[in-house]
Amino acid sequence: MLISVPRETWPGERRAALVPGSVKKLVGAGFEIAVEAGLGVAAGYTDASYVEAGARIEADRERLLRQADIVLRVRKPESAEVGLLKRGALHISFLDPFNEKALVGELAAQGITAISMEMIPRSTRAQKMDALSSQANLAGYVTVILAATHSPKIMPMMMTPAGTISPARVFVIGAGVAGLQAIATAKRLGARVEAFDTRPVVAEQVQSLGGKFIHIDLGETGQTEQGYARELTPQQIELQKAGQKKVIAYSDVVITTAQLFGRPAPRVVSRDMVEAMQPGSVIVDMAVESGGNVEGSRLNEVVDVNGVKIIGQGNLAGEVPRHASDMYSNNLFNLLDEFWDAKERHLDLNPDDEIIKACVITRDGAIVNETIKNL
Which domains does the chain have, with CATH numbers? Predict the structure, then answer.
């Protein structure tokens, strides 16, 4: 069974879907691997390292895709390339199926079995395949590094003969995977960290990392079965904004990570909150790609509001492409390994399996995922 891995063509994307370490394991399991020339260069992997691991290098992208039984990518495919795939092929990548209805329809019409990595369930068994979490972990780290780079202040407290420097105050909004990593990273750099999340259940996790949890009474909130925050009512959003306003005003760095799965991000930081911050303060809007948490943030831009910088960097995990590629590649390997029948040399994608039921979007010419089908 041939796995083909094309080079990413999305603007600015430096991650690779498969790294040599995973190639070696897949070859050992019985797969044949073909990768496009230059696949891992931006992540620090040479073509020679892929050959050494057991892959062959293919310079002809169209041929690479046409011959594939399985295609692995980071980003969703371009419409023109869907038609190159043979009927019955398996395509695995981030697909953004909630917003890419036309693409999902094209994959179904082509007879492709399409797995969307966003839809891997957050269960104990699927944890090793959870690419959203692996990439969010790195993104949370990157947000703090970006903030430290743009801030005119240092993060840690310093006691010197020239005087004492107080630690920077960092406020993290949202304590999911990315938020918790941001809290941990800011603490490692010596900052004083506070955090808020609509799910009071995460307070203990924030405190275990050395952060202070800010309690804001929003009434009934909770989380979904997958562990995501539930969408707030307009009244609850206003209560959240009011509770956060004072903390934001005295913070040197604000990092927002609030996102709703499959829906636009909630706007939790308004213009008046930004204007209340001291000049030199920094805000990193991690949700900018899905609409943004911060009023005035713009994708891939740094916006200045009265001396306050709002950083709207997209593809944060892609800023550390080596480790982002390593982790994503491991997620893909674990997914394939879970369903690979080595004896029969085929993938057993049982539609009744809880993981398959959640992440397979199209199969046999139809949209089979109930959530996407009923949008």
Answer: 2-119+320-365 (3.40.50.720), 138-319 (3.40.50.720)
